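Quick start: what a row looks like.
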Amino acid sequence: MTRSASLWRSCAKSCIRYCVLACLLTITAVPPALASNFEIAPVVLELSSARTAGVVKIVNNDNHNVSLQVRAYEWNQVDSKDELQPTQNLIISPPVFNLAPGASQVIRVVSRQAAGASEIAFRLLIDEIPSSSEGALISFKFRISMPVFIAANTAPKLQLDYQLHAGKPARLMVQNSGNRRARLLDLALTLPNGKKINAPAGGNPYTLAGLTRQYLIETETPLAAGSKVKLTANSDAGPIDTELTVAP
């Protein structure tokens, strides 16, 4: 097994705990706040032409009942921004359910989407449904966004290319010409003066298959075309350490 495959398998089997405080809906009274504390496994669901169904397990570690809704969306990236569109290509069962304290629920996810030459990306949005019985209590809602991927029906290939363009802000272009997503963590640039700048990734470290993602890099002074900048990051295929020449 390659290092990349091992890392992805580890991610698929891992379990993450979400302790989320979300938007404050009412401000009339200030009783103890209600939070939500969950375990979800896996954190990324991997499907393929040979494995068209998978399961997601949610455990309620809190001391109160919750109602959850799960919906499926096609996931695309346009102008470096995520776009989600509702889809019927993933069947979710059950789509709505209640969880008592300490209880768990297994969600079955079945793909109706045929695998293609490139990986296909979806997201599951798991939302808490506010309870009408909460009355004047401060009510918190949360949302979990979980990736689901259908592997390409060809051999996996990850090919990343980088371009850094001068200007203020500078523009770092990450082009994924492979057939599977790339996940870049701790993406940073070391400037000619030795200063290190972390690229703003928001909450999403992915560049989907066949797409290009832009990062805007704020610097004190514009980068000069022709200067050298060091790029570092961590990926599922291993660390990335390369030198870029700033383009006009």
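That is the whole record. The chain has two domains: 3-25+32-150, 160-245. The longest helix spans residues 3-13.
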